[in-house]
Amino acid sequence: MIRHDVVEPILLEVDQIYHLACPASPVHYKFNPVKTIKTNVVGTLNMLGLAKRVGARFLLTSTSEVYGDPLQHPQVETYWGNVNPIGVRSCYDEGKRTAETLTMDYHRGANLEVRIARIFNTYGPRMCIDDGRVVSNFVAQALRKEPLTVYGDGKQTRSFQYVSDLVSSPSHQRAHIAGHKSRFTCAHARTFPCWWLRRMLFPSIIQAPTAARLSLIDRLVHRPCS
Ligand SMILES: NC(=O)c1ccc[n+]([C@@H]2O[C@H](COP(=O)([O-])OP(=O)(O)OC[C@H]3O[C@@H](n4cnc5c(N)ncnc54)[C@H](O)[C@@H]3O)[C@@H](O)[C@H]2O)c1
């Protein structure tokens, strides 16, 4: 294993590049927004340059956040989004949009074989407890026996996908298939408002004894979304 910051160039002999490097949680990507955008732009440029040099197939893990605050639901791949270029999330949203642009420009200009997977909220075992997104927030608060916090009016929606569904999704499988021409794949699961997610996952959370709460949590973290 090599530990390397993708913002710095690297020379390797490889057949395939899976470019996942980037903090994914808002808490983490807002912590150092300049580093986040450098990772998305300079890091992606370095990985694409490497792919071109060695003739490797390239997969970019993009995000549903490229749609910003979407005006269309659900989002289809032909929708171009509604993104704020100067907000606190822009380092991630605009960084990933630029990463997608670079990926397609290398495809068109250098005939690089590329894939872009726009991933939605993924949950499952080994999530970081301080990830800051709604599923891990609910689980962490339930484990601490705290009230579950729903931000705002709870009507904001999120799409969720179980981690193994993502790993076995067509975007990743196709990355293995030589000569496959599909370039865009949306890894899209089910969409829920946050208040509904809380009710669905923890129906009697306020009164439930600890054991009942834990079994609900157990069901949550092990149940595939499909
Ligand atoms: N988890 C999700 O729900 C989700 C949703 C949409 C998109 N994605 C994308 O999928 C990819 C992986 O997400 P994750 O949930 O595993 O994130 P994660 O934060 O758990 O892991 C990201 C990894 O990237 C590494 N990294 C960050 N900056 C780097 C740099 N400059 N150089 C080298 N490595 C660097 C981190 O050390 C970490 O190991 C990311 O590109 C993310 O944007 C994830």
From TrEMBL:
| NAD(P)-binding domain span | 13-168
Q: Does the keyword Protein transport apply?
A: no
Which GO MF terms does the UniProt record name? NAD+ binding; UDP-glucuronate decarboxylase activity
**What cofactor does its activity depend on?**
NAD(+)
Entries under InterPro entries matching the protein: NAD(P)-bd_dom (IPR016040), NAD(P)-bd_dom_sf (IPR036291), UXS-like (IPR044516)
According to UniProt, this protein's pathway is: Nucleotide-sugar biosynthesis; UDP-alpha-D-xylose biosynthesis; UDP-alpha-D-xylose from UDP-alpha-D-glucuronate: step 1/1
**Predominant location of this chain?**
Golgi
Which Gene3D superfamilies does this UniProt record tie to the protein? NAD(P)-binding Rossmann-like Domain
- Gene Ontology BP annotations: D-xylose metabolic process
Location(s) in or outside the cell: Golgi apparatus, Golgi stack membrane
Note one Pfam family from the annotation.
GDP_Man_Dehyd
Record EC number: 4.1.1.35
Annotated membrane topology is:
Single-pass type II membrane protein
Q: Which reaction does it catalyse?
A: UDP-alpha-D-glucuronate + H(+) = UDP-alpha-D-xylose + CO2
Its top-level enzyme class, in one word, is: lyase
One GO cellular component, as annotated: Golgi cisterna membrane
Keywords for this entry?
Decarboxylase, Glycoprotein, Golgi apparatus, Lyase, Membrane, NAD, Signal-anchor, Transmembrane, Transmembrane helix
What's its job? Catalyzes the NAD-dependent decarboxylation of UDP-glucuronic acid to UDP-xylose. Necessary for the biosynthesis of the core tetrasaccharide in glycosaminoglycan biosynthesis.
Query: What PANTHER family does this protein's entry cite?
Result: UDP-GLUCURONIC ACID DECARBOXYLASE 1 (PTHR43078:SF6), UDP-GLUCURONIC ACID DECARBOXYLASE-RELATED (PTHR43078)
Per the record, the similarity remark reads: Belongs to the NAD(P)-dependent epimerase/dehydratase family. UDP-glucuronic acid decarboxylase subfamily.
Which protein are we looking at?
UDP-glucuronic acid decarboxylase 1
Question: What is the organism of origin for this protein?
Answer: Triticum turgidum subsp. durum (Durum wheat)
